[in-house]
Amino acid sequence: MIHAGLASPQDLSPPEAVAVGSLLHFSGIRSRFLPHSHDVIVCLPPNYEHEPTRRYPVLYLHDGQNVFDDLPLSPFGVQWGVDTTARALMHARVIEPVILVAIGNAGRDRIDEYTPTRDSMHDAGGMADRYGQMLVYEIKPWVDHQWRTLRGPQDTALAGSSLGGLLSLHLGLTHPAIFGKLALLSPSVWWDDRWIVRQLATADGARPELRIWLDVGTGESRMLKGTRLLYRMLQRQGWRTGHDLAYLEAAGALHDERAWAERTGLFLQFLFPFRFDAR
To answer: Distance (Å, rounded) from C-alpha 174 to C-alpha 208?
Structure first.
């Protein structure tokens, strides 16, 4: 069990891991902030054991059931294959070596945990901040203690699709000192009458230093208009395309795991381009 609110990461009690291919699967992790347990799956980069002084950036992924080839838990039968794609790009020295940490969703309660507000139209939502507390105060300290990580926001990323994309943006905006890189795939901008866009429009003070990948498929009728609106709002707030913002409209792509898998290599290259100064 992972415990929150303890004096130091050394006090955390790591759950038992099951090795599955290149992955470490920790099941049934309980949080002080949420009523449901979550699985956590960790993928270490190649040569991790052979470079004992090296530290690595970390990518946290939502909907952990859907993202790894080596652990096919997806109820849809299709995975993103982030582990396979990332390993190939690391071996080719296209991206820097990175630790991947996937957090499984809470099933039918996913919609509550992945949304920042209560949406009266759906009579659901509003627990994203508590999910963020689990990440910030429980899972990330445990990961940082358990493995050799680079811990600053410039080396800590979030990625998610659909409601997971909405969640990633919200947590990046509310915890920019923790998460400095975001991948938003087909984000559910529509949630609560486009609440996230309104939040950006009324934000006061300096914008957070976030590097953002944003995409959507042109076959996603519900998502396309909202994502375009979000892209324009990000530009209006000071993010610059080609610098700290990337935007892609994937021709014909639908709202599914297969489409997000095809874009995984692109967002990994944007967030973690290869560095010749090995750290």
So the answer is: 9
For residue 69, what pLDDT is reported?
A: 86
User: Residues of the chain with pLDDT > 90: what percent?
Assistant: 80
Fold of the domain built from segment(s) 9-271: Rossmann fold (3.40.50)
Task: Quote the strand ranges of 45-188, DSSP E.
Answer: 58-61, 99-103, 156-161, 181-185
SS3 (DSSP) at 76: coil
What SS3 string covers 251-276?
CCCCCCHHHHHHHHHHHHHHHCECCC
The band of 206, judged by pLDDT with boundaries at 50, 70 and 90, is confident
Token reading at 187? 């984000």
Q: Which two structure tokens, joined as six digits, stand for 142?
A: 């445990």
What are the tokens at 7? 């004096």
For Cα atoms 28, 57, 215, give the angle at the middle one, nearest 5 degrees. Answer: 85
CA angle 3, 27, 174 (to 5 degrees): 55
Q: Is 5 a residue whose pLDDT tops 80?
A: no
